[in-house]
Design goal:
Blueprint: E1 2-4, E2 16-20, H1 25-30, H2 41-49, H3 57-66, E3 69-73, E4 75-79, E5 94-95, H4 98-104, E6 110-114, H5 116-126, H6 132-135, E7 138-142, H7 154-169
Parallel strand pairs: 2-3, 2-6, 6-7
Antiparallel strand pairs: 1-4, 4-5
Helix pairs in contact: 2-7
Length: 170
């Protein structure tokens, strides 16, 4: 199935960019970042910023922007069978325009990749096209919030994701 990513959620004051690979089928159906109810992303954002899954979606996005956190997908589009990142066909990946993104949101100083695949795609497909200044932006690969990454307990994931709040507040 050919999937298309969502536009970025960002404010000019954003300091942290959280990157995901590409919306899964449930997120596409709902037209929401991390729309799969079993994905722990919004539970973590609740703990960090009060953006609980029960809060209306538009308000959750506003809470993130108010806290200097941006969201985006590495991929503008790609072919993926199902929801697993491992099923993304590499040859089909079209990456988003990060040069334009960083021009529009110049205060980004930390990029947090939600899972290994997002980090790999960013490093291999985006980083080489960026200026040395943009290549130097600190990157962290955080544990995936996907329900497919159940090997790590929620409290450990949350502990690792604390970096988002610390950097956004700093």
């Amino acid at each position: 199935m050919q999937s298309e990513g969502f536009p970025p959620v960002a404010d000019r004051s954003a300091r942290v960019l959280i990157l995901w690979t590409l919306p899964g089928p449930e997120s596409l159906r709902r037209q929401q970042y991390f729309g799969q109810p079993r994905n722990a992303f919004w539970q973590i954002m609740d703990e960090l910023f009060g953006a609980a899954p029960e809060v209306p979606y538009r308000r959750r996005l506003q809470i993130l922007k108010e806290n200097r956190v941006a969201l985006w997908d590495v991929c503008e589009s790609a072919y993926r069978a199902g929801a697993l990142d491992g099923n993304i066909r590499g040859e089909s990946v079209v990456v988003n325009d990060f040069k334009r993104f960083f021009r529009s949101y110049p205060r980004i100083r930390l990029i947090c990749c939600n899972g290994l695949k997002a980090g790999q795609l960013y490093e291999r497909r985006v980083l080489p096209s960026l200026s040395p200044r943009r290549q130097a932006i600190r990157r962290e690969i955080l544990p995936s919030t996907s329900p497919a990454h159940a090997a790590m307990r929620f409290d450990e994931k949350l502990r690792r994701w604390e970096i988002v709040r610390k950097e956004a507040e700093g």
